[in-house]
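MODEL INPUT / OUTPUT PAIR
PAIR INDEX: 1
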Amino acid sequence: MPILLLNPPSPTDLLPNREGTASFGAMSSGFLYPPHTLAVVLAVMREAGLDGALLDAVGEELSLEETVERVRAIQPELLGVYASWGTLEVDKQALQALRAAFPDMPIVAMGTGARYHGEALLAAGASHMLAGDPELAFAALAAGPLPEPGVVKANVLLPEEHNFAGLIRHPQTLPRPAWDAVPWQAYGFLTLFGSRGCDDNCAYCAYVRAQGRSQRVRPPENVAEEMAWLERSFGPKRIMARDLVFAAQRAWALDVAEGLIARGFHTPWECESRPEHFDPGLLKKLARAGCTTIKIGIESGDPEELARIGRVAEERHARTYLAYLREVVAAAKGYGINVRAYVMVGLPGQTMANVQATAAYVRELRPTFFHPRPYVAYPRVLLGPGLSEEETERLRRPLLDVARDLSTEYARQHAPLRRAWRKLLLAIPD
């Protein structure tokens, strides 16, 4: 009987995006990441000689009842259930249904962001809760006799591979994800990580809490080869590099781009980083390597607010930051790279004046796409609780107007002309 990995469904109209926010997770009305974590867990199991299978109930659009019947048909000896902080309620419902159907089956709840609700997952029906990064630790747990029910820590199972928080020390040791076992076509793209963690410690950021305050990069040639492998083996329409700060180490990002160019890579891909990590030279190289979109977190267009939330040290630095952002966006768009810009709404102490300043700045900045996202006080985020949901939605309205106008502007642009202009610019020698 195999060991089954499960990405459980949602009984609601919203879908669980457990990979979102660095695996803290969220409920989503549309966009979802494919279950990268489970695909790596399965790849590690295969390397260890374990008989494993993966059931992505979200990607297959299964109901909870259908999921239970699929599990029953497989008859696994051990069930690993992917969970996250932002999907806790539907995760609990799934565990309750699974425990009712399989009263004697060992069920291990896992997920980087799920460790903050370990006791709740155990109470819902999990026999064990794996705290920490599960990619390497789950196979180690499954390979031996299971310990007594309760919380199992990744850094206790594999202390050399995980730090004190249970985070993987060396991401280059991970195998490529077992995408062949995932219905990834339902998501429309594939993902990879060239690095984990971030050296910054922004007070509002959940990503560092999930991946650690230290960027650990894989060798650039290893990253370029994995992207080429994704292109050869699966042919996705696009690839998302999910590094928190892809361009933080400029020389590393350039080496990845050079590796892609040398391999004749042509699949559109996108990456994310702080705006100040980009510059015109790097952007041009990324564009030549096939990068078609960058994601940047502006957070706010108001200098006072940027200083207050700790995005910059002082208000005078905010003005320099906002001015440089204009250069980055202009350069990216000049090389045919779309810019997805994000700001937070509902921050502690945020006022309509802050929001209006941000709206005015973004209208001037003119990124390709604009996403005003409600601020969420994830566990251990230093900034603390934000505004009420009602107040957040009130403040969000002017920003949604900007987002709509920018989307309309983009839709009116002539796509063939954009592509021709990009090709012309990239043909110009450095």
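PAIR INDEX: 2
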Amino acid sequence: MATDLQRAPYTTLRTQCPPAWIDVNQHMNATHYTLVVYDAHVALTDILGLGDDYVAQTGCGKVVLESHLVYEREVGLGDELEVRSWLLAVDAKRLHFFHELYNLSRDCRAAIAEQVDMHVDLGARRSAPFPDWKLRQLQDVVRQMLSQPYPEGVGSRLRPPVNDWLQTTQS
């Protein structure tokens, strides 16, 4: 693996919000939060040794099973952004990732994103266990990540509105 385990979480992306990302509400459009996190996730995949070289060597890759993004603060034109990425759990076939998008210009966390990926055999197009050597490497990363303070917001859920008005109109 190409990074120092003592520096967890990993800084996986630094960028600035350009004019093209600003929407009619004069802040970064939701689409671009997703794209920033995606680019950071690709960088983390490479850091973990699961990128193109791994795919070529093993014929295996990973696919997203579940993803959740929470918008916490606005990002404005020109704001400096940084993504800090975590690998929080791994089992024989799955990985649990967490990304924090920081707005360095406003000194706040702007969003969090969480996802679970599945390791797959790309020839068979089916889930497959990690090779033992790779699983051990990933477990070492998780062990180091979990030695750091746990990031706030892991496991967050949707908070949809409740249709209380239905009960009063149907009575």
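PAIR 2 NOTE: The first strand starts at residue 10 and ends at 16.
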